[in-house]
TrEMBL record:
Biased composition (Basic residues): 29-42, 279-292
Listed Basic and acidic residues bias regions: 265-278
Ranges of compositional bias, category Low complexity: 61-70, 250-264
Domain Nudix hydrolase span(s) in chain numbering: 99-234
The protein's name: NUDIX domain-containing protein
Length: 303
């Protein structure tokens, strides 16, 4: 046995090198196994992404941009559908001032004694389109007035007729906008018996005044709410004409002259309806210096 063989045989046995390695060369590293379920993409996915990025656009048509991803909605927040305004209904502008007005008026009727045909006095006003709108005379309650006294005064001012109150026939309320204000108006109506006077158009707000037969009022009046009041007045008129003594007693009775708390408050609102609006106060006023400074200096800390 040679010395080389004795050196190879003594000691630990050697591991055979990989196939294809040259004799006496450095042995190559063992191959690492790929872990399954890793974070990286597989070869098939990488090749598909590479082909998609390198694919040229078609001639004659630009490529469509990818749709933007919708932002995730946080839990507990209301949906945007609840915040959308209702179609056909505009939200009120908070900068527009809202005021309340209270008025009184009446249906003055002639012929209750049975000597002539029943007829009522109506007033006509011309709107912006040039149309004549027929309605009952009415106006604001002023200081010291009851609703009955206001109805008597407004009938005299707008028609030139003097009447006496027989009975209330109802009230109506409605909304309208004028000169940057939203107005909620309430009108108390009364049935009046004509006593004296002739038709007159001296009031600047009235363009026409006319006697209209009671049966034609539903077709002549412009507003449906006043047409309903006329239906109520017809029932009261039938009862009073059937009892002449009751009719005479009501015509001779003096109207109520002491205003109620409601009528006094209404007169105050009507008096200030055209005043400029008061400046709005900010929510959560400024804090006092004692609180801002941590309560030092022995201050009370009240605002």
């Amino acid at each position: 046995m040679t010395s080389a063989e004795s050196a190879d045989s003594s000691g630990s046995p050697q591991r055979p090198g990989p196939v294809g390695d040259s004799a006496g060369g450095t042995p190559s590293r063992p191959r690492r196994r790929r872990r399954r379920g890793g974070r990286g993409r597989g070869r098939g996915q990488l090749s598909a992404v590479t082909e998609q990025q390198a694919k040229p656009e078609t001639d004659g048509a630009p490529s469509e941009p990818a749709p933007a991803a919708k932002p995730a909605r946080k839990q507990g927040t209301p949906t945007s559908k609840a915040k959308r305004p209702v179609p056909g209904r505009a939200r009120p502008d908070p900068r527009i001032r809202t005021v309340r007005e209270t008025s009184a008026g009446g249906l003055v009727v002639a012929g209750l004694d049975g000597a002539d045909e029943l007829r009522a006095a109506l007033i006509g006003r011309v709107d912006r389109r040039g149309r004549t709108l027929w309605s009952l005379p009415k106006g604001h309650i002023e200081a010291g007035e009851t609703a009955e006294l206001t109805a008597i005064r407004e009938v005299a001012e707008e028609t030139g007729l003097t009447g006496t109150v027989l009975a209330p026939i109802g009230k109506i309320d409605y909304w309208f906008a004028v000169e940057g204000r939203r107005v909620h108006k309430t009108v108390h109506h009364f049935l009046l018996s004509w006593q004296s006077g002739d038709l007159s158009t001296e009031d600047y707000e009235v363009s026409e005044v006319a006697w209209v037969p009671l049966a034609e009022l539903p077709t002549r009046l412009t507003y449906s709410d006043e047409r309903k009041l006329v239906a109520t007045a017809r029932t009261v008129i039938d009862d009073l004409t059937a009892d002449p003594a009751e009719l005479a007693a009501r015509e001779a009775a003096a109207p109520r002259s002491e205003p109620s708390a409601y009528e006094r408050a209404a007169a105050e609102r009507n008096a200030v309806r055209n005043d400029p609006p008061k400046p709005r106060r900010r929510r959560g006023g400024r804090r006092s210096r004692g609180r801002r400074g941590g309560g030092g200096g022995g201050g009370s800390g009240q605002t």
